[in-house]
Amino acid sequence: IMDSSSNEEILHDFPPFLRVYKDGRVERYILTEKAPPGFDPVTEAQSKDVTISEEPNIRARIFLPKIDPNKPKRLPVLVHYHGGGFCTGSAFGPITKYTLNRLASYANALVVSIEYRLPPEHPLPIAYEDSWAGLQWVAAHAKGNGPEPWLNEYVDYDKVFLGGE
């Protein structure tokens, strides 16, 4: 019989972010809900989710500002890494969606927000490797023949920026 108190033994406590128990469980103090992609009526930006890699599982959300079909032009691209100290947060969270819809619209830039895997379930440097894979995936579209049509059609690859919070 296992003593139930041993299941509650804390290995690491990182308030206000997370707690790691000795049995391997992780409790996140800040839970990130997921907001669906789609059309934003305020900015008229669109967003959609894409798969960068199946194995490992790396995803991203792309934000596209309103495009004037009478004035087609290539846009700068911002590869975005969401906040959370590489241990919390999400490219699919409601705050990220709100912020990046506006950023894409006001900057008139396409934004690719990388959903990297989080520690401690995925120890560092996995988040960094996922982030690098996301940047490489964006760059692989520079000749216009990558798997994502928005990156092929709308991006000026002489104007690539990295950012996050």
TrEMBL record:
Domain (Alpha/beta hydrolase fold-3) ranges: 78-165
EC category: lyase
InterPro entries with a match to the protein in the record: AB_hydrolase_3 (IPR013094), AB_hydrolase_fold (IPR029058), Carboxylest/Gibb_receptor (IPR050466)
Keywords: Lyase
SUPFAM superfamilies noted in UniProt: alpha/beta-Hydrolases
EC number: 4.2.1.105
Similarity section: Belongs to the 'GDXG' lipolytic enzyme family.
Protein name, as recorded: 2-hydroxyisoflavanone dehydratase
